[in-house]
Amino acid sequence: MSFYSEFSEQYEEAFPLREEVSGFLRNHFPEQGGAILDLGCGPGHYCDRFQQEGFTITGVDLDEQMIDAARRRYPDVRFECMDINGIETITERFDAIYSIGNVIAHITPEQLRTLLPVIRKLLFPGGYWIFQIVNWDYLLTLERYAFPVKTLEEGNLAFHREYEDISEEQVTFHTFMQSEKKRLFDERLPLYPLRSNDYLKHHASAGFRLVGLYADFKEKEYGKDTDSGAVFVFRVRAS
Known about the structure:
This protein is of the alpha/beta class. The chain has helices at 3-6, 11-14, 19-26, 45-52, 64-73, 109-122, 136-139, 196-205; strands at residues 35-39, 56-61, 78-81, 94-99, 123-134, 145-146, 150-152, 157-164, 171-179, 183-191, 208-214, 229-236. The strands form two sheets. The protein has a seven-stranded mixed sheet with strand order 3-2-1-4-5-12-11, with helices on both faces. Strands 6, 7, 8, 9 and 10 form a five-stranded antiparallel sheet that branches.
């Protein structure tokens, strides 16, 4: 069982829906409805928001506990328990596909190169592919990085995240949840960093056109030497 499974009930509290994120994504959706795919949807709160706004949304996540939590909370939304490396089995096409929360860093560069043509095939001509990751250009200059601790359940839980053994090939993602009396989980997972130029190169090879690269969802200018996120916006050329 991964920490995502053990964390499924607290995930939405730790990472609540942010209006600047939903607004940024919505600005790349069709004005009147449309089909949207969320890769790595977690507990499904963004899917629910977009469904309520009239979009046809499908949420995909590998973690069964996350999908179970999403289905309980948002029974009117379609959720599928699926590895994003297996989305070639999806038969629908979409106006936009997005992935937020550093999900893409969980797949290897080889898997990414295989995934991108699948995403392109699933998008309608002119469709958008948007993903958010951490700023690997900056983090790869460090040996270790700790995120601010998140306090949950009225101060009864502390959620810790840090990157250890940072290298060009792999980063160890260390997470643990601490209560007053005990550590609820403690896990290390591999992440696969890529510099922004590598993401651009792989997407160009797969037939995507870069529309924007930002430090956050407020469209702050991206800088390789700043402690920020990285939000990539690509588009499939209309034929």
